[in-house]
Write a structure and sequence with these properties.
The protein is mainly beta. It folds into 2 domains: 200 residues, Thrombin, subunit H; 99 residues, Pdz3 Domain (Roll), CATH 2.30.42. It is built from 7 helices and 28 strands. It has a 6-stranded antiparallel β-barrel. The protein has a 6-stranded antiparallel β-barrel with strand order 8-9-10-13-12-11. Strands 22, 23, 24, 25, 26 and 27 form a 6-stranded antiparallel beta sheet that branches. Strand 19 and strand 20 form a beta hairpin.
Length: 374
């Protein structure tokens, strides 16, 4: 059996309609492809999540066995079958039990294209799962199972109260089914990391994630990232893939996932805002030139408008081909992937301020966001 790794490469991007990006930063989804200590200290936290303290620090290395017990039976292995053939496996965790059903969270790429999902519990019982809702940009999915054999529910925490250097651990199914229920421990290495991933051949997306050094491997996708108290603070999703790099994994903050949980449970398609332009990165000079657009060489970052949709907010606001978008609501835009990320922080109907350059002059305009169709 040989494994096929799914890599995420920061390349082309569609923002509303179309575009491209630059730079090669490779990440890897964590699903397995089968077909081929306590600190006693008064703490204050700044916005970076780094603890500031002046008193003595005492370490009590008692382990996290009790905390593992709070999540172990709520963690599951997910096997993705497509047309009768086992194609991949990943992890997930039960976050709710209600009546005859229980509900688990995992990654979209763990359940994508499945015709059958086989869920294995910690006691090796197996039940089938049904995808209720899934979204490739969030990389999140909700799966429903019978509650009859579910004995434990995960405790949902928050990553906002976590600090860089805090102990974290994971439970999941790295490499393959035989290693299900593996526990790994490490530290929270960073917060608010912005990583660019390729959603498909034509679209990139920026994810705001937690960075950890706990060992996570193919098959850990969708499993819980937990603090030392055994509370879920994230959902393991991807890792940096380079031969010389070790211990750089990334997880979706749990509060971000819970923000969309009702829509995913209901199977509702998420509405995403749209400004009505096609675009390219400033750095994609050759493709920009192919559109007959000549840029000021002093412009090093931003997004070039290559077309405007009829009737869109962009057209009504007067944006034109050749304009270079440099900021949204005062936040600088480095590339199309980040512009898309900023847009998706808003709702359909919101009005945003776009800063752009035209004829070597900086301008601002307000645009009302409409619904992205298709």
């Amino acid at each position: 059996m040989r494994e096929k790794l799914v890599k995420l490469i920061g390349l082309l991007l569609i923002v509303g309609i179309a575009g491209s990006g630059g730079g090669y930063i490779t990440y890897q989804f964590l699903e397995k492809k089968l077909s081929e200590s306590n600190t006693i200290v008064e703490k204050t936290t700044n916005t970076t999540g780094v603890v500031k303290c002046s008193n003595d620090i005492k370490l009590d290395e008692t382990g996290i066995a009790t905390s593992v017990g709070k999540i172990y039976d709520a963690t599951v292995t997910i096997q993705n079958y497509q047309n009768g053939r086992l194609t991949s496996s990943g992890s997930g965790f039960i976050y709710k039990k209600e009546g005859e059903y229980a509900y688990l969270l995992t990654n979209h790429h763990v359940v994508d294209k499945a015709t059958k999902l086989l869920i294995t519990l910690s006691n090796d019982d197996q039940i089938e799962g049904e995808v209720l809702g899934s979204d490739e940009y969030l990389d999140l999915a909700v799966v429903r199972v019978s509650s009859e054999k579910i004995t434990q529910i995960a405790t949902i925490g928050t990553s906002e109260n976590s600090n860089i250097g805090d102990t974290v651990f994971t439970v999941g199914t790295p490499i393959g089914y035989e290693y299900r229920g593996s526990v790994t421990k490490g530290t929270l290495s960073g917060k608010n990391r912005m990583v660019t991933v390729s959603i498909n051949a034509n679209s990139d997306w920026v994810m705001n994630v937690l960075q950890v050094d706990a060992a996570i491997n193919p098959g850990n996708s969708g499993g819980p990232l937990l603090n030392a108290q055994g509370e879920v603070i994230g959902i393991n999703s991807l890792k940096l893939v380079e031969d010389e790099i070790e211990g750089m994994g990334f997880a979706i903050p749990i509060e971000y996932a819970m923000k969309y949980i009702d829509d995913l449970e209901a199977g509702r398609e998420l509405e995403r805002p749209f400004i009505g332009i096609t675009m390219l990165n400033v750095t994609d000079s050759y493709r920009v030139y192919q559109y007959g657009i000549r840029l000021d060489p002093e412009i090093e970052e931003g997004v070039v408008v290559t077309g405007v949709s009829t009737g869109s907010g962009a057209e009504q606001a007067g944006l034109k081909k050749g304009d270079v978008i440099t900021a949204v609501n005062g936040t600088s835009v480095s590339n199309a992937a980040y512009l898309k990320y900023l847009l998706y922080q808003h709702e359909v109907g919101d009005t945003i301020e776009i800063t752009y350059i035209r004829d070597q002059k900086q301008k601002t305009v307000e645009i009302t966001l409409t619904k992205l169709e298709g």
